[in-house]
Specification:
About 45% of the residues lie in helices and about 15% in strands. The chain is built from 22 helices and 15 strands. The chain is globular and about 80 Å long. Helix 3 packs across helix 19, helix 8 crosses helix 9 and helix 12 packs across helix 15. It has 3 domains: about 260 residues, Rossmann fold (3-Layer(aba) Sandwich); about 180 residues, Phosphofructokinase domain (Rossmann fold); about 70 residues, Arc Repressor Mutant, subunit A. The protein is of the alpha/beta class.
């Protein structure tokens, strides 16, 4: 395997652990709290999760626990999109198992949840694990987006676990993946097996967090990676003094990445989807807001700037959200008829008599290449693939049009030249920061302790993350505590609730207090690349978001 010089050095990095996990494993006891409940829909969820609902939170404390020395067979799944640090979760789980009992075995399910369904496994050895320590990506076993939710899938998963004689399955994933983990844990118990299921919180979007999960892994590294790129563009545009950079950032349902990157780089404008939705801002108002900053900066001789845009912005603009819903409903109802229409003009004509007039006018008002993206790129359920809509180009086109009118009316005399960017995949497999390397390793090791202690239906939890790693608090949280019921595909289904940006939280309020100055003036910060070596305040620092949320 060819490796870079940095990768060779990173192999030797020893992740830091909470003090409780760094000693003898038989000295890690579990302290249970009070019984827990779901976020909402408590009684309905209690009926769905009859055997796993209401369990207490678990915290690791010093004490005797002979269970941690027993021999175990465990399978691990990487589920969903990649996030920096996934390899270290597996490494922490592997090292924990071997520290507990050298005869313990770890299987990797290849290609995500489908690997469990189809019994596609690889025996993970020290030699394999050592090739992936502290590296980015999910390539050690691969990932996938298959959901384990049908009776056939659940049954096949149980068959695989039985054939391998597993004691437990660990699911490393986001909110949907960990919802599946909760369903799997319940199913295994319903069918009379003692096979346990433990989750680990992953997603660079940062929307898998709550009072029990302070951060999902990968968010720290992804934001630092994007902020380096944004900072480079800040320095470039301040040097060339001629471009407005419209930068779309990954984050479909929540604007956590855009907000964190704004705090790190201080752009002229950062749109926050949750705020736009709360204020019911139309697309025109969003464009007006951008134009105001461009005109003001132009008056100051600055015909350049930086604008950050959350990936899922269009779903939070009321009239666009309605358009998307109308398109989804209409096309889903007549999918066969629509699918044979290949011409954009013919598609528009077909829709003209089928969707409400207000939505049709909005679709007509969009630049043709953007309007086509609402119709062509659809997921397997027939829904608009919002992540593929080039929102940055949509806004550039509308801003250009608006500024041309203002120039004609004598309200604007500057020069506007724009470039569009989308930073998404660039951050998903980056070398994990020291924080993510440590955090992920701790999550994996904690998953081992939960398994060895006989728990199921829990997600690995490590808290107090703004303190040094030795002071982190490790344990586990019942997956059902994070759930409510949502309408999906015509039925109420249990889901782990996504955490959107809290407009009353310190991170957003800090941003809101400062953005007025950033809009008119050039206040860019250039954070530079992720630092792996040097003083702890530089190389071990976590996100500004986490610091604002948890530091007193």
């Amino acid at each position: 395997m060819n490796v870079s010089a940095l990768q060779k050095v990173r192999y030797g990095y020893k992740p830091k652990l909470p003090a409780i996990l760094g000693g003898n494993v038989e000295d890690i006891a579990i302290e249970f709290g009070s019984p827990t409940g779901a976020i909402s829909d408590k009684e309905e969820l209690r009926k769905i999760f009859k055997l796993t609902y209401g369990k207490p939170a678990a915290t690791f404390k010093t004490g005797k626990n002979d269970k941690l020395k027993r021999e175990l067979k465990v399978g691990v799944i990487l589920s969903g999109g990649q996030a920096p640090g996934g390899h270290n979760v597996i490494a922490g789980l592997f090292d924990g198992l071997k520290k507990g009992n050298s005869s313990s075995v770890l299987y990797g399910f290849k290609g995500g949840p489908s690997g469990l369904i189809e019994n596609k496994t690889i025996l993970l050895t020290k030699e394999i694990i050592d090739e992936y320590r502290n590296t980015g990506g999910f390539d050690i076993i691969g990932s996938g987006r298959t959901k384990i939710e049908t009776p056939e899938q659940l049954s096949a998963s149980l068959d695989t676990a039985k054939k391998l004689n597993l004691d437990a399955v660990v699911v490393i994933g986001g909110d949907d993946s960990n919802t599946n983990a909760a369903l799997l844990a319940e199913y295994f118990l319903e069918n009379g097996t003692a096979i346990q299921v433990i989750g680990c919180p992953k997603t660079i979007d940062g929307d898998l967090k709550n009072e029990h999960i302070e951060a999902s892994f990968g968010f720290d590294t992804a934001c630092k990676t994007y902020s380096e790129l944004i900072g480079n563009l800040c320095r470039d545009t301040n040097s060339a003094k001629k471009y407005w950079h419209f930068i779309k950032l990954m984050g479909r349902s929540a604007s956590h990445i855009a907000l964190e990157c704004a705090l790190q780089t201080q752009p002229n404008i950062c749109l926050i989807s949750e705020e736009i939705e709360e204020k019911a801002m139309s697309l025109e108002k969003v464009v007006d807001q951008i134009c105001q900053s461009i005109i003001k900066r132009s008056e100051n001789g600055c015909n350049f700037g930086i604008i950050l845009i959350p990936e899922g912005l269009v779903e939070f603009i009321p009239e666009i959200k309605k358009l998307i819903n109308d398109l989804n409903d209409t096309i889903a109802d007549e999918e066969k008829d629509f699918s044979v229409i290949t011409s954009f003009i013919d598609q528009m004509y077909w829709l003209s008599s089928r969707i409400p007039e207000t939505s049709y006018r909005i679709l007509q008002s969009l630049p043709p290449d953007i309007a086509q993206q609402f119709l062509v790129d659809r997921d397997p359920h027939g829904n608009v693939q919002v992540s593929r809509i080039e929102t940055e180009k949509l806004l550039i086109g509308m801003v250009e049009k608006k500024l041309a009118v203002k120039k004609k009316d004598g309200q604007y005399s500057g020069k506007f030249s724009a470039l569009g960017h989308f930073f998404g995949y660039e951050g998903r497999c980056a070398f994990p920061s020291n924080f993510d390397s440590d955090y992920c390793y701790s999550l994996g090791f904690s998953a081992f302790v939960l398994i060895a202690s006989g728990l199921t239906g829990y997600i690995s939890s490590v808290k107090n993350l703004t303190a040094p790693a030795s002071e982190w608090i490790a344990g586990g949280i019942p997956l059902t505590t994070m759930m409510d019921l949502e309408h999906r595909h015509g039925a109420k289904k249990p889901v782990i609730k996504k955490a959107l940006v809290d407009l009353n939280g310190k991170p957003f309020k800090t941003f809101a207090e400062k953005r007025g100055g950033w809009a008119d003036k050039t206040c860019f910060l250039v954070p530079g690349p992720i630092q792996y070596f040097g003083p702890a305040e530089v190389c071990d620092a976590t996100t500004i978001t986490l610091s604002l949320e948890y530091k007193s």
